[in-house]
Amino acid sequence: MASSIACGSTLKVASFEGLHARSLGLRSAEPAASVDMLAGDSVARREGRGSSVVTAGLKDLRDRIATVKNTQKITDAMKLVAAAKVRRAQEAVVNGRPFSENLVKVLYNVNEQLATEDIDIPLTNVRPVKKIALVVITGDRGLCGGFNNYVLKKAEQRMKELRAIGVEFTVVSIGKKGNGYFKRRPQIPVDRYLDAGNAPTTKEAQAIADELFALFVSEEVDKVELLYTRFVSLIKSDPIIHTLLPLSPQGEVCDVNGACVDAADDEMFRLTTKDGKFSVERETVRTETPEFAGVLTFEQEPVQILDALLPLYLNSQLLRALQESIASELAARMNAMNNASDNAADLKKSLSISYNRQRQAKITGEILEIVAGSTVQI
């Protein structure tokens, strides 16, 4: 315990090392000019350290501890809200998986029957790539760790690769954070800014799909790439890029490197209480889809069916990407708020120790002063 006490009729405020002005929100104060060493107490400034000691009063520490407690309550509440929302978002992704998988099977079956025919479907036309539309999906809010930064860095990396090979590109930004990022950088060509909201619906996905469909069919762009954050688990999310247009007739979803980005296994979780605190239990579930007949009989021409199914598949892929991005953002926010709560608990403990030491030093100094006064000869 380090304390600096001035002998005399008045007691100076104790000074302590180890309390940084920036962490306590206090002003740096120069130590008192005359201090005495009592029982091995440290001096106000150590030689060679070159940094001034912070004078932190008991009231300042009490206020700081109260502020940290209030902040911890806020971060705990935000963590629970994000946990409840990410559960619903993940359920939306899982519930839509049977529809997507059956749609893929239908597309594959139709394509097998059309393997020997020369069909012309606008969404599957492969052209020489001269210009690419890069669709970047970000979040609408902050306080989610590095979620948005990872997506934007991935977008910058992809744009750098396209510049290196001499391919033109334009950006379609979805999300307020991405919109603000690209608006501050006028050198990046942006075709349009779109908002998807915190709970994307089929209607919103349809509006975005119509915009991308118009860009591709009008041949303003020759390829559309989708960049979003794929939800893997509560502690892991991967920013990925996959080709959205032209669509694969088989309905395969692969990234630009050819790796499959579909996941049959999902991590689900539920909130429980453990030792008087909220905790999260995780489990891996596999979504079961009903058996699908391998042989189909079509009443209409397969070309007409394929022409109707591919736009539907495009909408489902966009909706799924939006839902996974929302789930990843909420999971990142939950982890960020959990880390903030843990840091607040550590800071509160450190401040409480400093407060108790300073209070004990003050009481000890007053006792020493009383004892010294009682020994004075009258």
UniProtKB/TrEMBL annotation:
Q: What does this protein do?
A: Produces ATP from ADP in the presence of a proton gradient across the membrane. The gamma chain is believed to be important in regulating ATPase activity and the flow of protons through the CF(0) complex.
Q: Which UniProt keywords apply?
A: ATP synthesis, CF(1), Hydrogen ion transport, Ion transport, Membrane, Transport
Give the way it sits in the membrane.
Answer: Peripheral membrane protein
Where does it localize? Answer: Plastid, Chloroplast thylakoid membrane
Protein source organism: Ceratodon purpureus
Pfam families in alphabetical order: ATP-synt
> Which GO molecular-function terms appear in the entry?
proton-transporting ATP synthase activity, rotational mechanism
Chief location category = plastid
- Which Gene3D superfamilies did the record assign? 3.40.1380.10, ATP synthase, gamma subunit, helix hairpin domain
Q: Which GO terms describe its cellular component?
A: chloroplast thylakoid membrane; proton-transporting ATP synthase complex
Q: Which PANTHER family match?
A: ATP SYNTHASE GAMMA CHAIN (PTHR11693), ATP SYNTHASE GAMMA CHAIN, CHLOROPLASTIC (PTHR11693:SF41)
Protein name as catalogued: F-ATPase gamma subunit
Oligomer status and interactors: F-type ATPases have 2 components, CF(1) - the catalytic core - and CF(0) - the membrane proton channel. CF(1) has five subunits: alpha(3), beta(3), gamma(1), delta(1), epsilon(1). CF(0) has four main subunits: a, b, b' and c.
- Would the keyword Membrane turn up in this protein's UniProt record? yes
